[in-house]
Amino acid sequence: MPQVVIDRSRCKGCELCFKVCPKKLLRRSSQLSARGIYPCEASDPTACIGCLQCVLVCPDVAITVEDDTDDEQPTRK
Amino acid sequence: MKYQPPHALQPVSTHYCAGCGHGVAHRLICEVIDELGIRERVLAVAPVGCAVLAYDYWNFDVTEAAHGRAPAVATGMKRCNPDKLVFTYQGDGDLAAIGAGEIVNAANRGELISVFFINNANYGMTGGQMAPTTLLGQKTTTSPAGRVARREGWPMKVVEMLTQLDGVAFAARCALHTPKHIRDAKRAIHTAFVTQMQEAGFAIVELLAACPVGWGVTPIQAIELVEQQMIPVYPLGVFKQASSPVSLPS
Amino acid sequence: MAGNHALAEGAIQAGCDAYFGYPITPQNEIPEYMAARMPEEGRVFVQSESELAAISMVMGAAVTGKRAMTTSSSPGISLMQEGISYLCGCELPAVIANVVRGGPGLGNIAAAQSDYFQAVKGGGHGDYHLFVLAPASVQEMFDFAFWAFDLAFKYRNPVMILTDGLIGQMMEPLTIREPSWPRATPVSFDARDWALTGAAGRPPRSFKSLFLGDGVLEAHNAKLQAKYARAAATEVRYETVATEDAQLLLVAYGIMARVCRETVDRLRARGIKAGLLRPLTLWPFPTAWLAAHAAQFAHILVVELSCGQMVEDVQLAVQARTPVSFYGRAGGGIVTCQELTAVAIERLGIKETS
Asked: Which domains are assigned to chain C?
């Protein structure tokens, strides 16, 4: 199952990902990050369909999508 | 793992403002470099402008250049190292204003380099002044009443201009504001590198990018402005493709 | 061979990998020669769109560890100051020749030495120095190309060959062979441990002159200054002629040193003990020699094709231990031996009773 993972430390809170998520899973966190902003969070990470729209628009590479059905190790090329 | 950031991109946070288009442009270039397997052959030139610190974000060899001179620096690099893949990354002040002479002549010589040109219609790093690409009516800190053509000239259409030069093998304009446009931009960046690998000629990709802070709007409003205000002035598409046909990643 | 051609051929023989330049009189023979010869050697020649671009192309070649060169004349060198400052800030090797013409502005195309300040005091923005070499013959135009690449790579710093339209255009016999002096050692032209060669099997490298962190630029400047101090202690080269018993010391470089050399003989023929100090390096300057010997002379006369520039460095070295005066012409006139002999006699306060 795909699962959206947000790096709170890299998110700058631009919120561009909110409207591209077809499942509307992404929203503003109620907790300040170390940057002093309210970063993005996923309301239900496991409801992610792995479309990668949010990954495409994120300017800060703060979003990755993991898929535990994939055996491939998360190694860098 | 469905998505892994490219190896060509350093795993660090950038200094760019929230919603800035540079981050997407950096990532796309690095994804293409990984996919083409050319990271160890790439030599890049960072501009003077917001992307001046790009060498801290890219995981390949990078040099700075004086403001606007990136195409000349790239010319020296490529002529001496024809086996390397050389690209410049330039903003609109760097490329279209102070570096207009260098970009036109590098393009006209058909230098085998790839140029990624970030058009966000203002000078971001220095605080939002007017650029050659600033839209008519757009307020900047040096066009406080809005750009007036009779006084400040018209938005400069760089890709259309360079398309006229015989040395240019690939010229495209893309935008970075929606997933569809970002996919198109990545294909153009891919073609720009392949054009160089085929030694077909000079390649340029202009990328329309949001600058929320420079424009004084929210990131969401900024991407709407790209669609509503920039694209009508700067039409998207491939303006020239003289290289032999290449298979683009789907 | 003409001086400009000798410089070009010297650079080729010294291993110049790439030449970038823009036409300007009186040095057009250099890009024209390079346009023909560099492709013969399988090396790079590009006629740039401007001097701004030429020096940036040099930087592009230099970051990849290549021996790169450009040449120009005064107005063009002014444009290159931007790139020269970046080369110094990034610590990159390069050779730049200035075949000086009259100024300011467009000036004229006659020989001049009026770019001394620009060459030795920095010229562009920031605290930096170029090595500045002053050839005085066609043979030295050839030989100094080797020396210039030596210094550029030994210190990873730009080197300027400061010459003029007269030496550039004049014809003299030339011996083509690798010179043994003046040179700088040790030098390695193997740039693999510092150049941009592609990040294969190593972390990425970058060249930059931007240092925003607290104290980082200060540390960078301190490092550059330490390098300049090391160079100043090691690389000063000069020639002296008949200085041991001299009352009058002439100081001149390049073409004017030749006029002064002849003037020394004419003065000695009249019983006036004259000598000559001829700096080969204008930066670093032979300050120590002047400081050590100044007291022995009754008068020091500095001769330049300018309104008086190197004379200030002589005064700084002499520290008022001996009277220092200046004679020169700017704008195309050449100081002759006859003229200079009369000036020297007048400055010494000798009343001739012939």
From this structure: 3-169 (3.40.50.970), 240-348 (3.40.50.920)
